[in-house]
Write the structure tokens for this entry.
Amino acid sequence: MATPVAAVVKVNWKLVLPWLALFRALGLALHVRQVFVGITAVLLIAISEQLIGGMPMSRETPVMKFDASLVSWVWLPWVDLVYPFAPSRLINHSGIAFPGRDGEWWHLLASLLRFACVLVVGSLAGGVLVRRAGMEFAREESTGLLATVRFVLKRSLDYLSAPALPLVVVGALGGLLWTAGLLARLIPGADYLLSAAWGLVVITGIVMTILSFAVFFGWPMMIAAVSLNGGDGFDALSRGFGFVLDRWRYYAWCVVVMTAYGALSLLLMVTAIRYGEYLAMTSLAWGANHWSVQNLPQVLPDGFWQSAITVVIRGFAYSLFWSSMAIIYLVLRQSVDNTELNEIYVEGSPQDSDGLQGLVNPTLPEPPPPPTLLPIINQP
């Protein structure tokens, strides 16, 4: 009687659970050039905030005011994007500040300028970070920073037009409602028509909300579509909305994994910095026989090094966010149209019909061939 043969096949978890690739984001984000790009984006946003904050039309607000929770650090580009429209910006101590009263139109304009600066800087810096992280993830080689910057600047219109197009629709709908309110105030009896059509007003507001949320969550996917697929703004808009709306559960799960892993990474980084500061101060105190570091002469402005450390952490948070989004985009793209994770647009190389260049990714090996079962010969 023949002995049954059992074949043991090793499970490739990277193929079964592609989102496990998100755990490579930390290694990609720790590259010095990635952190440098993140720090540059943080400084540009801070400078624009200070310039706009110094305008007469803007309320005086702290430049680096920021919620220090770990989730907000992981979601830093998202937080910076919505911060200009935070309630504290548009609501004063006495209640809601309606535009058109007490000069609130100027405050709204300042918020729009802040939003535009964050969108421009975040989109271009995100394009650089996603491009470098995606090429490193797929090809295991680091692309030059200047070459990547040129790649992004050449497609700057695509990076900006993708999120701007739906925002223009949101602004047009808001302008339509503003016109309706103005007519109801100026024309006698128009308020009755507005009251009768209140259902349409609410529906318009819901459409504006849906578009705003789609832009908010689809913005990273749009940036990744231009960087990794090489498409134009319309293609990036279509992919960004499609990935978020068609695979929203998968996208939400990837964001949850990114948030948990990113929060842990940032917590370890902050803990290492704080503990290092403690060891340095303790060693100085012992060496100086309890002499206090407060007795050192103040050469630099007060809080300079604390601000410098904060900027570095924020730059790393930017790098970690966009590196994670590069991987999430590739995972979602594979789920939607079965495109391999290692297919990334490369300039100057042969392309297929989709404009993609297939690249071999050593981190995602081909599945092993099925085992060959040899027959068992029973000898007499």
Notes: The CA atoms of residues 10 and 145 lie 39 Å apart. Confidence is low (pLDDT under 50) at residues 60-67, 90-98, 352-365. The radius of gyration is 26 Å. The chain is about 65% helix and 0% strand.
